[in-house]
Amino acid sequence: MTERESSSCKPGKMREVLSSWIERTRSSPVVDRFRKRHPALSEFIERRFSPHVYLGLYLTVGLLFSALFIWIFVSITDEVLEYDTLVAIDHRLTAHIDSIRFPLADKVMGFVTLLGGGHVLTPMVLGIAAVLLWARKYILAAGFLIANAGGSLLVVVLKVVIRRDRPFMEYTRFDAAGFSYPSGHAMMAVIFYGMLAYLLIRAVHMERLRVAIVCVTVFVILVIGLSRVYLGVHYISDVAAGFAGGLFWLSICITGLEVYRAKTGERTGADTGMPD
């Protein structure tokens, strides 16, 4: 690949192409006729997808993602409660994994799974919140704490309501108490590491570094979820539901912070960065 071709693939260049395409679409004859025939509706749609309007693009995208993730969670839950095909897959996969375990992988996965547990996440949450408060990022600190505390409460409520038993003891390689569905480790990994990635992405400006942050975050979350299935303390559907539930709550929390950022930016007329 030549240097010219490589530069054309940069995220900044792609955003310029996307923005240009959106502008051409808005100025097309079809859209122009629709705007003239339905001025109120077209204005409403434009405001919903405008990044410069309070309760515009941030809220719209956030609600769309939240609706998608809650639909996925409800679909998985329905399969589990009705003992449909997904439950049969759960049991077969759990039995298969039990037959291919080996000591070294047990130790590695035992360590990895701790990265999604309360003994590790709780002090990390408090430490990051303290750093944000010390830096006078009060809104970010509050949002970070609410995201993690609210996520923990949501996990407890869902487990008590659904009350699914964990896999049979002969498949388990790690101590785990309580109900199985959804996976608290998977859900809290999405929320904690997702919020941490959000904070880091806001703090850096290099596109490649931002992409690296996203890739590392996704990898860590996936490995934590995989560790729960490998160790036999959760079914694959527990982990999938944990991911979906965590993404739902994460999208709600990030949307709230972005809407607040848009509101304060519009009100002050200053830069739309999160105020201190």
Characterise the protein shown here.
The protein folds into 2 domains: 3-37; 60-268, no CATH class. The radius of gyration is 22 Å and the shape is globular. With 276 residues, the protein is mainly alpha-helical. It has helices spanning 3-8, 11-26, 29-37, 39-48, 57-81, 85-100, 103-114, 118-134, 138-162, 184-203, 207-230, 236-268. The protein is built from 12 helices and no strands.
Topology, element by element:
Elements (H helix, E strand, L loop, with lengths): L2 H6 L2 H16 L2 H9 L1 H10 L8 H25 L3 H16 L2 H12 L3 H17 L3 H25 L21 H20 L3 H24 L5 H33 L8
Notable traits:
about 280 residues; disordered N terminus; about 75% helix; mainly alpha; 2 domains; disordered C terminus
Global outline: globular
- Radius of gyration, CA atoms, in whole angstroms: 22 Å
List the helices and strands in order. HHHHHHHHHHHH
Largest sheet: none
Percent range of helical residues: over 70%
N- to C-terminal separation?
43 Å
Strand content: under 5%
Number of domains: 2
Structural class: mainly alpha
Q: In total, how many beta strands? A: 0
Stretches where pLDDT is under 50 for at least 5 consecutive residues are: 1-11, 266-276
- Give the helix tally: 12
Q: Overall pLDDT, averaged?
A: 78
Oligomer kind: single chain
